Amino acid sequence: MRPILVEHCVSCHGPEKVKSGLRLDSGEAVYTGGSRGPAVVAGKPEESLLYQAVAHIGNLEMPPKYALEPDAVESIRAWIAAGAAWPDFDPASMVPKDKHAEAAAQHWAFQPVGIPAPPAVEGDWCRNDVDRFVLARMEPEGLHPAPTADKETLLRRVTIDLIGLPPTPEERAAFLADDAPEAYDRVVERLLASPQYGERWARHWLDLVRYTDSFDSRASTVTDPAEIWRYRDWVVQSLNNDLPYDQFLRYQVAGDLISAADGGFNRDGLVATGVLAIGNWPQGDADKEKMVCDIVDDQIDLVTRGFLGLTLSCARCHDHKFEPFTTEDYYGLAGIFFSSSILPGPGAKTEGSPILHLPLASPEEMAARAARDQRLAELRGQRDTLLAEDRAAFARRDVSRAPEYLLAALGITKAQRALDPAAVRKWEEWLGQRPGVLGRLERDTNGIPGLHARRGSQDMPSAVLNLTGKEQHYATITQPPDTIIVHPSPDKPALVAWQSPVAAQVSARAQLLDVDPTCGNGIVCRILAGEEVLAEGVLENGAMAIFEFTEPRAVKPGERLVLSVDPRGDYSCDSTSVEWFITSDSGATWDFRSEVLGQFLDAGPWRDHAGNEEVWSLADPNEAPAAPGLRDELRPLLAAADRDAAVSAFAAGLRERLGNAAVRDELTGERGPFWLDAPPLEEGAPRAAVEAELRDLEEHPMPALDLAVGIQEGAVPNTGYQGFNDVRVHKRGDYNNLGEVVPRRMPAVLASASAQPITEGSGRRELAEWIAGADNPLTARVMVNRIWLHHFGAGLVRTPGDFGTRGEAPTHPELLDYLARAFMDSGWSIKAVHRLMVLSAAYRQDSEGNPESIARDPENRLYARMNRQRAEAEVLRDSLLAVSKQLDLEAGGPAFADINRPRRTLYLKTNRSDRTTFATLFDAADPTAIVPKRVEATVAPQALFLMNHPFVQSVADALAASVAGHADSVEEQVRELYRRLYARDAEPHEIEQAEAYLAAAPPDTALPTYCQALLCANEFVFVD
Q: Which of the four pLDDT bands, split at 50, 70 and 90, describes residue 755?
């Protein structure tokens, strides 16, 4: 038998390739089978899939390209009929699935949390019940606790543990001076009350939930979770407020379905569900149906492995091989998430899928906004109708005075009767006597020195130049340094014009960036030559795009190309950074930004790089475009030596020409000088009331809607699912190979017998209640184990992401249950768990231990000493900033990308498409994965970073300047450095070494290089 299988079957069903999940190279594999079930049924060839396939019985024919010889087929039939014996394998040894599930269900982690009594132990070492459990495990092994750490070591340890920053010299001095027995307890309470506590422990949680600020640096805000920082800030605030952990979990699974404490809209709840929207799933997948399945799989993995320490996602394709979870369990949960949506739709194939950006507003507020928007639309429509009527009426009334307006606009004569000032200005613009540019300069706009704006005859359009040398944040705009941004008006574009100084063949390329990604709906970009559109496209909100025409076009001297940035909808958030390049066939290039940057404060139009005048301008679209007619006749007269006489003669003849319909139409039409933007408004006129109400609404706008990334009820639209769904099993994980429908439910082995079927909504509320329920055997155990892990360096269960049968058993099972029970009894207070752990004698041990305990328990599984731990990437960078007195403790808000910005590293932008960051170098969590415990690698580039990176060098310079200003003598400077960096006094020999080095080194660099050496030391990077 074996030669037949090896020759004909194993190439596709062996160690190199496993088609349909079936291997035929071992007895266990043959009896286990693949996706279709066992390959053989001993003694029953006709019921065995292997025989059916080779005998071509039914639809299954193997091998696929030829038929076996009849003798080979008969050999297989006879072998199965005789019992299908396999050397060294007994089929009876295989445990039936139901028995396997029954055995797995007896696993310790699936049993109810016990109520263990603290063991009785002798001696006075114990400070609380935690120590009694720890000591009771040590004593039978002949181990003894390590001595208590000294006060300086303990202060540095607990401070970094709880807030992620080193203690200050002042905090150290206060603690050393406090001899009261409760001195350490007071330190713990101060740290737990610190706002920095939430920032420190939020990072541990964010590791677990695969937090990222961006999926891809190239993504638009439509497809990127631009508002996910709100979720990060909610985690921080929840931890600082000690939000009960069960509520913390409920909000993340179903916060959008839970009312706020006052019964109203639950803003925090909706923000919390953002965790379900930032999974690692293939946005640009051409197979959008599979993409939706992958999203659901990620969400199941988060709530089971992330919150419960279970690898239930393994049951996506088949019954779990080691845990008591079936594919039915998986798809019971899957139905809950198939009935929820983080997408407004799947998006186009191969393109990034949009994600939901949900308004943080109650239904009542959204209805009020909609009603207000509808009223605005009505008023604008009425205003436009009345305005058109008034414009036409004014033009008909005053057109007879055209000669007077002509002469007044040119300053030749004054009219005998008063003329309308607005009409005179319009005549000036029409005649080209007023510059058609954004001419009004506004310095230090928004109160920011170095930020300057230009505006035209109306407030909008406008342009803003950032000459501050750094990124500026104002309103909802983030403007990079040395950039010019333009902002359209409600109904007119912002125009950047290039007037050719040469006759040439040219092409043009515009690169636009939306610098206001938090709101708005993008712009329409056009490159125009007169009325001809040379390039056109849409810039999505928050995105960058290039618009260009590459086919050379002939231009004459004085001919204009215009870059038009048009509002796409609501203009209010459309702020666009402009880079625009014109290239001629001779190779000459005009660069708008670099050429205008230094001239912006001078009135435009501006010169080009070659000194040609009036090449660049920010054009005022309120200027009417040139049209043939009277102006063509007037143009040579305006340039004549005897202009006034020539124009006066023209004006004298104009009165009689007003009877010509074409002349009247030119003067009174929409582009004529009598068509006013705001014609005179008589008191009591219908337009007055409309404009008054409209002005009041526009001058008092509702605040911009805050948006959040999150989830909502109902299936993803346009995916084949509608509303709420029980789904079919996907055999082998294939959505095209469907089995039986599974009602939405919790995993059978863990669900309460009284659990009710889900009949309304998605089922996320019921899922949240089950996860956060006190009778769930995993929730409290998993969380207290993770808290213990971060305090002690290793968990009581050393596989913190796997509490299943393949995970490690707890080293202290009674202690684990004691902590879990105490956690629940405290009202799910995370801070209460911290107190239990960090106030224990076990936590206060030194990290040296003794030779005997190290020899007997090298992995320190019994905690007879403290584990020395390396500072994580965030703690390292934050400590660098803290000891150099640069750390900015501003909390919250959008992430920043510049490592040199002195805010906490929690707010440094995480981007899944960029794995070359400082955080990655120092083993930060992979933002694509659920990370309950970080890996720790020591590699040469880490040392090179600390020795050579400009950021660290700048920290060393700042540290040196700070200590130099603190003390005059070298000895005092060194003492200050040791207190800041290591929370201890410098030893005499360390002071001597420092004095010797500083005396010999170059004076300009001595102290900074000495500071950097101390920053590179293990004592700064590690926590004892």
A: low
